[in-house]
Amino acid sequence: MSTDFDILDSLSCGTLPPICFSDIEYYKILKDTLIVFEVLPWQKSVIRKPLQTSKYYFFDVGVARSLQIRDKIKLSSPDLGEAFECWIAHELKSFLDYRSDGDELYYWRSTSQYEVDFIPSDALAIEAKT
């Protein structure tokens, strides 16, 4: 009969068989625990072919920077643009969730790397710039 101590001890020694997850499963775990949220690619373009991959945003820019062991954001750094984009993503996601009419937040990027940061509806596109 194993105790909690035995299980924790075996975990720290690495004797349990490894669990293999694909990247999709890791992202699903992060989404299910509300650590990240997904912004889906907008697929309604007929003229230009969009990319098919989603974008993910951490629930908090500070946590993401801490996990990456990075310093505070300086006003003159390119990191400010990323943090601002993340803040706008949170505000738009919160607004769409509050409104609860079924609208999702999308983004669009072409194969030639042109990008629109956020598409909250078919009639509106938002580019976040600092």
Brief descriptors of the model:
18% strand, 130 residues, alpha+beta
What does this structure look like?
The chain has one domain. It is 37% helix and 18% strand. The chain contains 4 helices and 5 strands; from the N terminus they run H-H-E-E-H-H-E-E-E. It has helices at 4-13, 23-32, 61-67, 79-99; strands at residues 36-41, 55-58, 106-109, 115-121, 124-126. A hairpin with a 5-residue loop joins strand 3 (106-109) and strand 4. It is globular, with a radius of gyration of 19 Å. The N and C termini lie far apart (60 Å). The model is unreliable at 1-19 (pLDDT under 50).
**Helicity range:** 25-40%
Number of strands: 5
Mean pLDDT figure: 77
Radius of gyration: 19 Å
Concise structural overview:
This protein is 37% helix and 18% strand. The chain is an alpha+beta fold. The protein has one domain.
What's the topology here?
Elements: H1 4-13, H2 23-32, E1 36-41, E2 55-58, H3 61-67, H4 79-99, E3 106-109, E4 115-121, E5 124-126
Parallel strand pairs: 1-3
Antiparallel strand pairs: 1-2, 3-4, 4-5
